[in-house]
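Figure caption, in words: inputs first, then the predicted bound structure.
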Amino acid sequence: MQEAVCPGSFDPITNGHLDVITRASRIFDSVCVAVMENRSKRGSEVFTVDERIAIIREATGHLPNVTTDRFHGLLADYMAARGSKVIVRGLRALSDFEYELQMAHLNRQLNPSVETVFIMAAARWQFVSSSMVREIASYGGDVSKIVPPASAAALQSRFPAMAQGRQKGAPGRG
Ligand code: PNS
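Bound structure (4'-phosphopantetheine present):
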């Protein structure tokens, strides 16, 4: 049984994440989507880890070999504790590459039995990120085409402006 771990912040899960998880679920026997609990970022996130996991569960409910979990501390330690040897990360534009390369090398150094596998999301999701989704939603923009329905619903209840529709670009005053 080959398990892959798909780690990330997932605040919230986007269609790009879901595409990568779906592709991984066709390659590996099981995929664990592991949400990082980041104590230093507390306050800047939109959803709690529990909320993010609930959204991921709903969004991946149709994928029988996908599970969810949470982790804190080093990913390399989490992989060792879990006995998993494959990290799956999505790669988008070239701008992701340097960060991902650094992380893959450092994780390998910290835990030599771990291999990082990169999966490219479909081209239409190349420019989708959770941070952009959060920003668009916070201004009342429509993100329903770039996130799963579970994320869209959660964002709508978190950002009332989004539910009311965008306040039409009122010009600034100075
Ligand atoms: O979705 P993200 O924010 O790009 O995911 C980044 C994540 C969670 C995979 C990365 O920050 C991580 O693994 N953090 C855990 C701490 C750690 O192991 N840091 C060193 C990585 S070399």
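The chain has a mean pLDDT of 92.
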